[in-house]
Recover the amino acids of this structure.
């Protein structure tokens, strides 16, 4: 699915150069469920942003589905991104002014899909994540778990091959957190590649492989037997 | 504490430089325009304050019947003969004096000058206290005396000590200098003509005109010429209502009966209004409009400030929450925010004062005015305006920001909600209503002016040189010779003498009637005294009958004849009741005189051409070959014009050696009048551009701010795959709604206002829907452009920047 080869990312300010990622080599196969772990500031989110093409690497190659996208301009990245990748954030990032339904539809809005088809797919995915009864509600009227379910629905409604989740359970209590993890697991079972950043070892256990980052390096990779 | 507020305010201004700059510049422009407009209006409305009797001096205005069809609503004077009845009809008056302006060739020593002289009744010096350098107020009592102003004396004699020196008028009659007076200030109506009349420099007794041109004001029931005023001096502590009543009674009893249909009333106007009477006369409220427009620009600037400050303060909710948590009371916060807006207004005021100091001298220089900035009288009022502007525009945002509870402000950096956004949208809407309205007015005026300008094409205007002063007897006797000599010049095609050339705003008319006895069928017919070359020189097309000819007896002047052959235009044919131009040939009608009538037989009908041009309605015209031509039209080939002009001068000097040739090109004469239309348009355009710029500047600031507020949403949308144009479109749409609402209000408003304005013109452009729509589009597109400029940079930024700090 994707391959990072000698990939580095550093940030420069006037005086300091901060290295966020240093010569990272990672390969992720199609259909994998990968967890990325590590202490605060180790480069997890930077890695996820680069994988999600929201940020570009400073050095090295990023081969996504056979294409080296490292030097691509934003417009091209944006196109690849919206076809293939769905995002889930710790703080949900729903738009406050839009209803549940409209928030989910947002992921299809920029894909040239006819309105009728959009509505049908949004309805289907809402059923799947169990949020259909809240379709007309605003995000502020939902609990955190419900909001994250909307975010999951938004991430998968476009049939994206890969989902990137940045601490999807960070803002949730344990019951809701587990709910979301189960949802991700079943998506993975249907074939969706999932890359997830998490602090929780328990939630990392849902993944087949865990990558541990420390100060921008990959330190260990643990492979678990299939569940 | 206050010091603390001021320091915080200044720091905030420095921190948000862009917004502060927009705020201050916007307010400064608004204040400048408002103050300048007010000072200018005050200046125009307060002319003639320098005379001791200013409050007791009145002029008499005439109100024309709407049916009079002369293109103006009133005149700043009336028939001179009416003045004779005022002494008896209004016995309380202390004095009455009339002015008649007349140009003469003035010979002083060996030099000749064409000079306009104001002839005045002797009481003129009783009404106006002129400052005598030599001589005294009795100077106008002697019919052979003349008064010079200082600058005129210096110009003509090189000296002010010229008592007893003589000047010769038209080589015939001499006048003796009986007084020299100081120049009158520029802010008197004598020296501030909109029409570009000469300043008052030479003053002579009305009685002298009897000898000079056989003019007797006591029997003049025929001429009304703007600027030839009639002044009255009322006693101290007079009752205006009583004066008006006696004037009305005098009008009823003594005004010429046959003129009452034309002039339906006379009014008493204070001297201080004489300066603005021109605008009253043509019916365009230019002075009032300046006041209103200046005010509107200030409103736009204030709204700008309010709107931007509101949006900006919303971003400071966290700061406010913190302050309140730390114990700041609502009152203190209010004071803090108001201090800020007052400081901004104060800085704007200072910039405005600097701008005014720059603008006023420039304005004075380019328009020959003496507008002064009297700081002593302006400053208190300006300070109050600034205070009001600061409080009004700062008050709303301050109220909003301090209204929320501390915990709300801390929790949600983006409070405010739907209601404030409606208020904001309304304010943007209001700005654009004003800006689009003005823009639409400017454009309609512009296109109407273009239409007015087209009247220049009615005649071969740029191939005509106008020779003036042909009514002097010595010149009039030589016109045939002059013509014969001029047409021999290689580039001169034709020469025609007539009583007025196209575009001259004179209405010379007589009462025309098919049957002399039947009053019901009579109407006012414009007349033009022409010669046999008239049609070919001015390209006037004959559509029926024949041209006038030297070979037909009654085509030209016949001594003592009560009949003549004439040409008329199509409209005259209609009004006389003939079925068609062809049917009118050979038919007769009558020119009604005080006693008897002259039978006029139509031998030719010419095309309708708007001889007066500009805003005038088409009028029925009779063209008759008779003496009394005032001007000549020399048609030349448009090659080597300078040489041709020199050749013509040589010919003139040979034929008429005693009078220098006085001439101007017909297109110059056209420009003299057209410039008034253009100036009004330019002035309004300046206001509109200011209003629109202010609205756009405000919109830019607001768009920048709102885009900042929506970073999170923009980030999410971009991650979802929204492209830059899609995000730009989203942001533009947010600001389009108020602008589109503004269109809905401004366009009908502009439509109805323009309809009123266009009524002033006889040949008006079609319904200005298209033009107004374009003005609206300009407003909308400009707004889009401004928002897009900012939105594009926001939309292009990396989406994770937007979400990183969530």
């Amino acid at each position: 699915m994707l391959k990072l080869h000698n990939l580095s990312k550093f940030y420069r300010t006037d005086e300091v150069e901060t290295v966020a990622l240093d010569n990272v080599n990672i390969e992720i196969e199609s259909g994998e469920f990968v967890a990325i772990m590590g202490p605060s500031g180790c480069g997890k989110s930077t890695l996820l942003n680069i994988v999600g093409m929201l940020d570009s690497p400073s050095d090295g190659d990023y081969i996504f589905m056979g294409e080296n996208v490292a030097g691509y301009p934003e417009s091209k990245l944006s196109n690849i991104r919206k076809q293939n990748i769905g995002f889930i954030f710790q703080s949900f990032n729903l738009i406050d002014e839009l209803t549940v339904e409209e928030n989910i539809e947002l992921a299809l809005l920029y894909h040239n899909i006819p309105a009728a088809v959009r509505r049908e797919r949004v309805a289907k995915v809402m059923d799947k994540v169990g949020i259909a009864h809240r379709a007309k509600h605003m995000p502020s009227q939902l609990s955190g778990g419900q909001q994250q379910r909307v975010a999951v629905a938004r991430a998968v409604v476009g049939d994206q091959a890969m989902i990137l989740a940045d601490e999807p359970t960070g803002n949730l209590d344990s019951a809701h957190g587990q709910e979301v993890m189960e949802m991700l697991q079943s998506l993975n079972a249907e074939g969706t590649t999932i890359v997830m950043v998490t602090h929780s070892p328990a939630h990392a256990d849902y993944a087949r492989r865990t990558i541990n980052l420390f100060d921008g390096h990959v330190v260990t990779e643990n492979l678990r037997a299939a569940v | 504490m206050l010091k603390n507020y001021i320091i915080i305010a200044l720091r905030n201004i420095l921190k948000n430089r862009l917004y502060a700059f927009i705020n201050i510049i916007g307010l400064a422009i608004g204040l400048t325009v408002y103050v300048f407009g007010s000072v200018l209006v005050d200046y125009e409305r307060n002319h003639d304050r320098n005379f001791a009797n200013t409050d007791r001096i009145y002029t008499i205005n005439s109100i024309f019947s709407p049916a009079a069809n002369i293109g103006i609503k009133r005149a700043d004077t009336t028939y001179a003969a009416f003045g004779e009845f005022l002494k008896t009809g209004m016995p309380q008056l202390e004095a009455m004096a009339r002015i008649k302006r007349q140009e003469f060739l003035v010979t002083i020593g060996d030099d000749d000058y064409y000079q306009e002289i104001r002839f005045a009744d002797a009481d003129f010096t009783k009404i106006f206290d002129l400052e005598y350098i030599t001589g005294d107020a009795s100077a106008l009592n002697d019919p052979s005396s003349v008064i010079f102003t200082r600058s005129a004396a210096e110009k003509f004699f090189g000296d002010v000590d010229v008592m007893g020196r003589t000047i010769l008028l038209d080589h015939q009659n001499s006048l003796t200098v009986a007084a020299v007076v100081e120049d009158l200030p520029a802010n008197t109506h004598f020296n501030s003509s909109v029409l570009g009349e000469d300043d008052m420099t030479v003053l002579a007794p009305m009685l002298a005109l009897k000898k000079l041109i056989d003019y007797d004001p006591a029997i003049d029931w025929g001429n009304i010429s703007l600027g030839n005023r009639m002044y009255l001096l009322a006693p101290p502590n007079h009752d205006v209502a009583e004066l008006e009543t006696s004037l009305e009674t005098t009008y009823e009893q003594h005004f010429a009966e046959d003129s009452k249909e034309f002039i339906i009333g006379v009014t008493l106007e204070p001297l201080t209004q004489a300066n603005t009477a021109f605008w009253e006369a043509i019916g365009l409220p230019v002075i009032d409009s300046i006041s209103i427009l200046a005010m509107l620009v200030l409103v736009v600037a204030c709204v700008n400030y309010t709107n931007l400050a509101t949006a900006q303060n919303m971003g400071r909710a966290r700061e406010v929450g913190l302050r309140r948590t730390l114990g700041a009371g609502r009152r203190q916060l209010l004071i803090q925010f108001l201090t800020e807006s007052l400081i901004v207004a104060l800085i704007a005021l200072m910039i405005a004062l600097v701008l005014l100091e720059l603008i006023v001298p420039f304005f004075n220089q380019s328009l020959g005015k003496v507008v002064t900035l009297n700081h002593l009288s302006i400053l208190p009022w300006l300070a109050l305006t600034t205070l009001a502007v600061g409080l009004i525009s700062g008050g709303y945002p301050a109220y909003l920001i301090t209204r929320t509870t501390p915990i709300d402000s801390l929790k949600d950096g983006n409070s405010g909600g739907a209601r404030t956004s409606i208020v904001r949208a309304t304010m943007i809407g209001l700005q654009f209503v004003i800006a689009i309205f003005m823009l639409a007015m400017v454009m309609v005026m512009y296109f109407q002016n273009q239409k007015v300008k087209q009247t220049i094409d009615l005649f071969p205007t740029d191939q005509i040189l106008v020779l003036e002063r042909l009514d002097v007897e010595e010149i009039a006797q030589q016109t045939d010779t002059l013509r014969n000599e001029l047409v021999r010049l290689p580039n001169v095609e034709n020469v025609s003498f007539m009583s007025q050339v196209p575009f001259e705003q004179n209405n010379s008319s007589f009462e025309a009637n098919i049957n002399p006895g039947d009053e019901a069928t009579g109407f006012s017919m414009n007349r033009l005294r022409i010669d046999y070359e008239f049609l070919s020189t001015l390209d006037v097309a004959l559509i029926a009958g024949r041209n006038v000819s030297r070979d037909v007896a009654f085509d030209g002047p016949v001594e003592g004849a009560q009949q003549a052959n004439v040409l008329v235009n199509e409209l005259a044919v209609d009004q006389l009741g003939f079925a068609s131009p062809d049917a009118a040939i050979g038919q007769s009608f009558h020119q009604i005189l005080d006693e008897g009538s002259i039978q006029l037989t139509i031998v030719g009908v010419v095309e309708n051409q708007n001889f007066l041009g500009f805003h005038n309605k088409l009028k029925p015209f009779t063209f008759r070959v008779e003496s009394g031509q005032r001007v000549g039209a020399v048609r030349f080939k448009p090659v080597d014009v300078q040489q041709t002009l020199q050749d013509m001068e040589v010919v003139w000097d040979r034929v008429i050696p005693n009078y220098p040739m006085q001439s101007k090109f017909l297109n110059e004469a056209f420009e003299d009048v057209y410039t008034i239309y253009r100036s009004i348009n330019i002035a309004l355009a300046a206001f509109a551009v200011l209003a629109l710029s202010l609205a756009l500047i405000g919109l830019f600031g607001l768009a920048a701010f709102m885009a900042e507020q929506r970073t999170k949403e923009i980030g999410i949308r971009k991650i979802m795959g929204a492209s830059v144009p899609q995000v730009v479109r989203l942001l533009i749409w947010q600001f389009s709604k108020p602008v589109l609402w503004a269109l809905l209000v401004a366009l009908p408003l502009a439509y109805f206002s323009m309809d009123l304005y266009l009524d002033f013109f006889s040949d008006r452009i079609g319904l200005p829907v298209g033009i107004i729509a374009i003005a609206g589009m300009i407003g909308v597109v400009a707004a889009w452009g401004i928002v897009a400029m900012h939105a594009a940079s926001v939309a292009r930024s990396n989406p994770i920047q937007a979400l990183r700090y969530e």
About this structure: DSSP finds seven helices and ten strands in chain A.
